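Chapter summary example: a protein plus biotin.
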Amino acid sequence: MKHEALLNLFEEKPGEFISGEEISRQLLISRSAVWKQINKLRELGYEFEAISRVGYRISGTPDLLNAMEIQMALKTRRFGRKVKIIETTSSTQEDAARLAEEGAAEGTLVIANEQTAGRGRQGRKFYSPRGKGIWMTLLLRPEKPLPYTPQLTLLSGVAVCRAIRQLTGVEAGIKWPNDLLVNGRKICGILLESAAEDELVRYCLAGIGIDANVEPEDYPEELRSIATSLKAEAGNKINRNQLIAAIMNEFEMLYDLYCTEGFQPIAALWEALSVSLGREVRTKSRLGPVTGIARGLDESGALIVEQSSGERLVVFSGEIEL
Ligand code: BTN
């Protein structure tokens, strides 16, 4: 393929300008074909500096998912040590479920460059465009009864939030239970699904979707005012491999802490990163809509909402509006 030959040419002369004439001579193609091939590489995420009468130079390479780069940045023993990278899939939740059923180890990570049927909480679709985000599922095998899984939902939010803050400096906060927001806009969604037998968890799938390098104009109309990306907030492109590794590092550390010390230290970290606490929230109870101030978490991970009557209500699942 011509664009691959063109890439080889640039790789032979790193950092150098190559004239259109030389490319055309080396690849035996016309000058307009050179321009077409340059544009083809641009579509694949390569960036070029072009100076008339001098030529072209590569000024940026695409941020490709790379298992080796992830592994080199890991400090973990288990999380992310087995990685499966898929170019396009319907949903990494399905791939990870298949691996879990086949006996894959805790910490196995499935990452996709694109999802065609990304799933969100409460049956919603999750926008997962090609090459622009982190769409991944981590397999957990906690030795816990099923009612404990909401705690893992909160733990997942804390792990991702801390990794984002460390690596990008973007001050993401957590909206209960585990959406990550920056200036009121969603930057990451987390979906925790569990398979259980006789009330004992067989495995959990922590699905994490982060809008890393999505451009404002990429978003479908309905998401434009409510979503944002790390690139838009940080002002620079995010290296997905490094962020994935940072999330694995945080996740394993917090998960081990949870397994030895229980939920209390995780709840304290969650509360410190929360954008929900102390604010008025609207939610639904069995008796209808409820408004109140979010006060904290109870020991199960449910949100305590204080109504104006002083009555305290515990919200176990669902959504809140800030
Ligand atoms: C939400 O915001 O409601 C949760 C979104 C979770 C999205 C992630 S992306 C990787 C994994 N695969 C999916 O289909 N969903 C999760």
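Key point: The chain has nine helices and 13 strands.
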